[in-house]
Amino acid sequence: MDALYTAVATATHGRDGRAYTNDGKLDVQLAPPVELGGNGQGTNPEQLFAAGYAACFASALALVGRKAKVDVSDAAVTGEVGLGKQGEGFALSVTLRVELPDTVDEATGRKLVEQAHQVCPYSNATRGNIPVELVVE
Q1: Would the pLDDT of 51 be above 90?
Q2: Sheet holding 9-12, edge to edge
Q3: Which residues touch 123 (CB under 8 Å, ≥6 apart)?
Q4: CB count, 10 Å around CB of 134?
Q5: Please, are residues 54 and 77 in contact by the beta-carbon 8 Å criterion?
Q6: What Å distances lie between residue 120 and 96, 106, 127, CA to CA?
Q7: Cβ atoms of 53 and 94 closer than 8 Å
Q8: β 76-86/89-99 pair status
Q9: Kindly report the CA angle at 94 between 99 and 71, in degrees rounded to 5?
Q10: Residue 132: which H helix or E strand, with range?
Q11: How far is residue 42's CA from residue 11's CA, in Å, rounded to a whole number?
């Protein structure tokens, strides 16, 4: 693959540190969530992944919607990223909740969401690695 764009980010001190991009557009304090024993005073990698996946999936949905001549411009995608124990380590799971405009019927909406799942780079990266559930609302 020839990259059309490369994002560059650096994280220091793991979940209790800072993450920033080389262009300065993102600079966030990191902290484990309260549920994992942290103080919750910063964002965490799962939140960043959820936001990135949701945004990317929404763009993929817009692309397949345009190709199908279906207006999904008012769609919203909510990403939920779960972190849990797996053996001696940890694993992720994802649920993508896609809220489609009322003008899109259920069958068409489901088809577009499935097509978006085939073209979204995050979906392609996670496929076969972590469970991803698609919920059409």
Answers
A1: yes
A2: 9-12, 18-21, 27-29
A3: 57, 60, 116, 117, 132
A4: 16
A5: yes
A6: 12, 21, 10
A7: yes
A8: antiparallel
A9: 25
A10: strand 132-136
A11: 13
Mean pLDDT calculated for residue range 103-131: 97
Give the tokens for residue 104.
């899109």
- Which residue has tokens 């345009």? 66
Task: For 77-88, write each residue's pLDDT tens digit.
Answer: 999 999 999 999
Q: pLDDT-based confidence at 21, cuts 50/70/90?
A: very high
Neighbours of 133 (CB within 10 A): 10
Please, what's the b/e burial string for 10-38 (b: 16 or more CB within 10 A of its CB; e: otherwise)? eeeeebeeebeeeeeeeebebbbbeeeee
The β-bridge partners of 135 are: 97
CA-closest candidate to residue 111, choices 61, 75, 66, 74: 61
Alpha-carbon distances, residue 32 vs 52, 73, 123 (angstroms): 18, 34, 25
Phi, psi of 132 (to 5 degrees): -125, 120
Element (H, E) at 122: helix 121-126
